[in-house]
């Protein structure tokens, strides 16, 4: 047995060490031999690959232009049906996909078929100010020369066009998120006013059948739209703001704040269906807990507390629609909502 008194790997014998002779037996294998590609040997193949790369960059340009057509032309044809909206969304997605895919695949194909593929190894040197700057300039010049971008104008021009156009769709999309200046005030005004007004009947969605107070039982829930919505010029736009949930509960369980005593009809209440987080439609009502749940991010609203947020990211209670009954017993609105509907990150006056 060896001496293990020190317990170190060097002395314990538990670690095998290579001596100088063993190191000589396994020399550095070096770099593998370079195998020339077809484009390296055949100028016609190189020219063919060059056209392929340019074609991919051109596909990127076409994808961006296709996005513009879908965004500006299809998006300004007036009121669109659900089928037309799906077509536009598919066109936007395809345009973006081809714009990004064309650039990515084109650059990869360029690198694998035309750019130099010689393996090399460079030692790291200490940084020296002026000399290092000169070395950096030389490296950049070498990269440009080896990439062939100077002597391949077809690739260069299509690449410049693809890169110049690709970010523009994102700019227009982010521009639509602008919430400053007149845009914000116009948005708030549009969300503050819906089709609801004094005397407008509550009707079932989507049939438009008026609802009587006697039709609403405790525990039931109705998806409701204003009467006449389906006959408007832009029903989808109006529905996106005006759709509500109608429910009935025991009046003894309701916590009614001052000024809202007459907003319900014997426990029948109506609240905006649009979640105040990011605007998802609320569709789930738990009768036993009196909770409304948003399926997108699990925001939960308590119907007994005037749809106060009790869980989730929503930062504002659901707006309540004041309702009453007309002479025929049908449920009607007393007025429009008293506050803007929709996500609470939009400014509220």
TrEMBL record:
GO terms for molecular function: 2 iron, 2 sulfur cluster binding; metal ion binding; monooxygenase activity; oxidoreductase activity, acting on paired donors, with incorporation or reduction of molecular oxygen. It comes from the Bacteria. It is a multi-pass membrane protein. Residues 17-27 have a biased composition (Basic and acidic residues). GO terms for cellular component: plasma membrane. The chain crosses the membrane at residues 53-78, 90-111, 154-174. Residues 1-44 are annotated as: Disordered. Pfam families: QcrA_N (PF19297), Rieske (PF00355). PROSITE patterns: RIESKE. InterPro entries: QcrA_N, Rieske_2Fe-2S, Rieske_2Fe-2S_sf, Rieske_Fe-S_prot. Residues 262-332 form the Rieske domain. Belongs to the Rieske iron-sulfur protein family. PANTHER family: CYTOCHROME B-C1 COMPLEX SUBUNIT RIESKE, MITOCHONDRIAL (PTHR10134). Iron-sulfur subunit of the cytochrome bc1 complex, an essential component of the respiratory electron transport chain required for ATP synthesis. The bc1 complex catalyzes the oxidation of menaquinol and the reduction of cytochrome c in the respiratory chain. The bc1 complex operates through a Q-cycle mechanism that couples electron transfer to generation of the proton gradient that drives ATP synthesis. This is Cytochrome bc1 complex Rieske iron-sulfur subunit. The lineage of its organism: Bacteria, Bacillati, Actinomycetota, Actinomycetes, Micrococcales.
